[in-house]
Amino acid sequence: MVSKNELKLLRSLRQKKYRREHQLFIVEGKKSVAEVLKSDFQVKNVYATASWISKNESVFSFPLTEISVADAERVSALQTSPEIFALVEMKENKAIELSSKCLLLEDIKDAGNLGTLIRTADWFGIQSIVCSEQTVELYNPKTIQATMGSFTRVQLFYTDLNEFIKQLPEDYVVYGTFLEGKAIQNVDFASKSAVLIGNESNGISSSLSVCVDEKIYIPTKATHKIDSLNVAVASAIVCYELTKK
Amino acid sequence: MVSKNELKLLRSLRQKKYRREHQLFIVEGKKSVAEVLKSDFQVKNVYATASWISKNESVFSFPLTEISVADAERVSALQTSPEIFALVEMKENKAIELSSKCLLLEDIKDAGNLGTLIRTADWFGIQSIVCSEQTVELYNPKTIQATMGSFTRVQLFYTDLNEFIKQLPEDYVVYGTFLEGKAIQNVDFASKSAVLIGNESNGISSSLSVCVDEKIYIPTKATHKIDSLNVAVASAIVCYELTKK
After folding, report:
1. Cβ separation of B123 and A31 shorter than 8 Å?
2. What is the Cα–Cα distance from A100 to A189, expressed in whole angstroms?
3. CB–CB of A45/A65 below 8 Å?
4. What pLDDT does B227 receive?
């Protein structure tokens, strides 16, 4: 069973400052736990309720620690509390091995958007994402949940985007998504492409827009004025076009 | 100011059964309120906090009812409570005027996914969406929020999808998104196209898959096995390809 102190630690990880302090985070749900166990993340412990264990005894080779339903609910940061979750060590990337197609995210604020974006990048084989320091944290429970396990495969790196773009190898072309520019279906992406995606409310800041080599946009077919697409949706169309050939 | 009874009504609208009973729903936030005031929805009242009114007095011609911050928080179903929201009459579509490109949704369960899907359809000029009866309700506050006002322009119709597809005019081709079929970039969509999108966990049911004329899929570029894309993301790529020409 789970001790009081252990439970206190697990609960504290709903908050970013304790995740940072302990360098630990929680992965909720069977599918995501399966993915993290397959990955090179260090899993410290896997907790499951008695009913889950009785139904799924031999699913994982990793030893399971039984937790009460009430305690599992106390740990969960999500709306529906999980029957199984893992306690995992953070990996902070000190550098990034840049894939030939990559995304640069400026100040994405919504955890669900970031998670969905990571899941989409994984689907399209985009292995690296560089985030501004103000982008929401990867280890936020809602981000981890929305990735559906893809956080184990896509590499994220948080840094000063201005500095990062300045130091990009010369053979990378930097694209940026705007409400104007070249229609995305007509863009012939370079073999090494980095696509900058802006914040949900403000788009790409002026200080970063000057670093963009080519402005691109997703044409609307609406007959009336619409402000924008959801950022995870716009990024999905970018990933699709970027990796089509 | 807002009476106790009025507040009780407003609060009750966080629940589907009271929305149905009163045929009323809440639209939160400045942008969405602006959109609903421009639309043919009947707005019964617009509530705003004193500080919002002092900053935005002349933004809307519609008369504003002042509400305290505490009461506004009690009404809101969202994480951040709004400074302005509208009380609006539901419109139940008894029939649908089908646009030449349309979506058919089978049992979409997540309110945020449905809202994002509506916003995306609007961007790509897709004016009608037919939903199975088990699809999450349009008037759920999270759906309305995620549409960013697009619910005023895209027509939704809830019905038995099996029956609906049987009665579709003969010149419509029914496509369905699966994990196999023709790669979407190679699909030459008919001038009248209806694309069926399946449930988040189970995809398209077997009873509906037999109604599909052509199976399509979004190819993955991942070198490992991934289960699926988020449904709002997959639908976005469908909307993009469907309306590209």
Report:
1. no
2. 11
3. yes
4. 78
Can you tell me the mean pLDDT for B1-29?
95
Express as a percent the part of chain A with pLDDT over 90. Answer: 88
State the residue for tokens 């949940």: A145
Angle between helices B231-242 and B111-123 (to 10 degrees): 10
Report pLDDT for B44.
Answer: 97
Domain boundaries, chain B: 4-89, 101-242
Find which of A109, A123, A124, A186 to mutate to test the B interface (most B CBs within 10 Å of its CB). A123
* Interchain proximity A220–B120, CB inside 8 Å: no
Is the per-residue pLDDT at B161 higher than 80? yes
Between strands B155-159 and B128-132, the pairing is: parallel
Give the minimum alpha-carbon distance from B78 to chain A in angstroms, rounded to a whole number.
Answer: 13
Q: What is the pLDDT of residues B72-112, one digit of tens each?
A: 999 988 877 789 999 999 997 888 899 999 999 999 999 99
Amino acid B82: pLDDT = 86
Residues of chain A with a CB closer than 8 angstroms to some CB in chain B: 31, 112, 116, 119-120, 122-126, 146, 148, 150, 153, 185, 218, 220-224, 226-230, 232-233, 236-237, 240, 243-244
Quick check: helix, strand or coil at residue B103?
A: strand
Q: Which residue of A has its CA nearest to B237?
A: A237
Query: Contact A233/B116, CB-based, under 8 Å?
Result: yes
Residue pointed to by tokens 């788009």: A203
A112 contacts B233? CB cut-off 8 A: no
> Which parts of chain A sit beneath pLDDT 50?
none
At residue A224, the pLDDT reads 85
CA quadruple A164, A169, A171, A177: dihedral, nearest 10: 0
Chain B residue numbers with beta carbons less than 8 Å from the beta carbon of A243 are 221
- SS3 state at A145: helix
Q: Which CATH class is domain A4-89?
A: alpha beta
B123 to A236: CB separation less than 8 angstroms, yes or no? no
Q: What is the ipTM of this complex?
A: 0.93
Determine the distance in angstroms separating the CA of A191 from the nearest CA of chain B, rounded to an integer.
15
* Structural fold of domain A101-242: Alpha/beta knot (3.40.1280)
Q: Look up residue B37 and give its two tokens.
A: 């005031």
Are residues B123 and A224, on separate chains, in Cβ contact within 8 Å? no
Confidence of residue B32 (pLDDT cuts 50, 70, 90): very high
Contact indicator for A60, A44 with CB cutoff of 8 Å = no
CA geometry: angle at A39 spanning A37 and A43, to 5°?
Answer: 45
